[in-house]
Amino acid sequence: NLARTRFNISQNIDHDANQDHFHKPMTGRVAVVTGAAGGIGSQVGKLLHSLGATVVAMDRVGHQELLEALIASDDDDNRWVPFPLTDHGNLTCVAQVANQIQRQFPTIDLLVNCAGLAYPQDNNPQRNSLQPLVSAHGRDLAFTVNYLSHVLLTEKLLPNLSRALGRIVHVTSTFHWKVDGSELLPPPPSDSDNDYDASNHEDIDQRNLPLAVRSTHQSAKHVERSYANTKLAQLWYSRSVRRHCPNAHVSSVCACPTWAATGIAGEAGRDFLQRFAFSIMIDNNDS
Predict the structure, then answer these.
(1) pLDDT averaged over the chain?
(2) What is the pTM for the complete model shown?
(3) Radius of gyration over every alpha carbon of the chain, rounded to an integer in angstroms
């Protein structure tokens, strides 16, 4: 009810004059939500749907059944539009889905970049027993999913958002305080370049990347810092949209959900967060 009331006030919607629109003030509007099958994304999608929006719900293949169950339980007027084959670890896939959405919805009112992952703290890529966490394009998986995929999606949908004077919401975290941004910058030449195999083109490619993006030649602190680096990168990107795209006619903001009880850090992390963090569930009596 708080979200509904604030939205109506911002749009100057009179409750008495138009009660139907007051209760569903986003009727006729389109919202794109990533990570919509579970966690924060599913609750954001459900709330937007309850406010009358058409919700374009993106998530990966492994969550297809979750997305279908969410839609089946809550869709009585075909305002859920699922894209359950979006692999945010594969930028080619993200670009293809973005092109479909761009064609299907000429105007988009809201984009919520919510999909994300965090490495379990015991998953140290320096240990030989573990497989490296690498994206389809050979980059760090968390950085690709949390940041690169959302930059690509946002840039693709920016014209559609601009036509609707839309808003971009990046779901970030105050956990970005853990890093100083140095691992997001291109590395300066140094003696450590000798550690790379000059005959290996992939090795040379990794050398020229910021530390946060690399999938090889990482420090033991990488897993610990990876999530924070992605969140700081999101903050910087949100500011760049506002500063460098003034003609795009969109607003770009960041939202920290506080300490939320989700499965972002795996099942072990989910158990801990459900005990000690804030619930993300929407009260059905208040929707």
Answers:
(1) 78
(2) 0.80
(3) 20
